[in-house]
Amino acid sequence: TVIDAEDAGRILRLAAGAKASNLTLANFQMLSAMAQVTTLRGVALDARHAVVEDCIIRDGKVGAVKSWEHYIYLEGTVMRRTTVANCRYTGTETAIWGNSAGVAIYALSQSVLEDVTVEDCRTKGGNSGGKSIAAPVVLSDSSMSHSIVRRNSECYAESASSAGGLLLYGASALTDTLVESNSVAQHHSGSVVGGVNMNASSTAAIDRCIIRGNSMGSSLQNTPTVAGGILASYGSTLRNCLVYGNSGPASASTAVASGSAGGVAMRSNSGSATGRMENCTVYGNTLAYNPNAAGV
Asked: How confident is the model at residue 96 (pLDDT cuts 50, 70, 90)?
């Protein structure tokens, strides 16, 4: 079954206990009037304590709309064997000074994502507190496994924890997943990573994943830590992973140089526990302006 929104608003909301399967949701758009509705969070799909299986969610867009909206909002929901593709922020890189726009999947409250592909999506971050988070996939106390996150990007963020691929919060877990060819173009401040950002997390873990070919643009200002592949801090852990072929920015301000890496950046914040790396292979990463930090 195909549900085509024809560029006009929301598509589907699933209440507790509901299940959606074998659906294609297409051509949905975030409209200005929708930004005022605070009880709904998903333009294509808003699922709360539900199940989503064998679906395709594609071709969404949001322009210069100040909103904390996501294409897919999952709360305590299981999503399996689903592809999310070409959900894109279509405004200019500096059009919004405010909230984030175009997060493809925002999963929280023990949501579980299995065999999910997220590709060719584009987000833009903001500068408004918790609404400033920006990444194509955001996990908050949730898990993702046996999945693919590739060719996604973040075009610009004023001040946020951001990533071209995934952003992990709380007790989130990423396992047996390929994260490749994601990128960030511009960033003003905050922490920013081409692949996976665990900066705002205390117990997040990445295990048995491949993180490759992710990259950072050179237009960066006032950023304390940047990384091409992964940023791990606040006690988060990276285990049994292969991290290669990622690249940090070619140039950066003095404020970011000491905390950056091409492959994996590890740090502690204000006396908190630092990130940990166990039994990983890190090679072939680059950081042009500081080759000594190309790997870790």
From this structure: very low
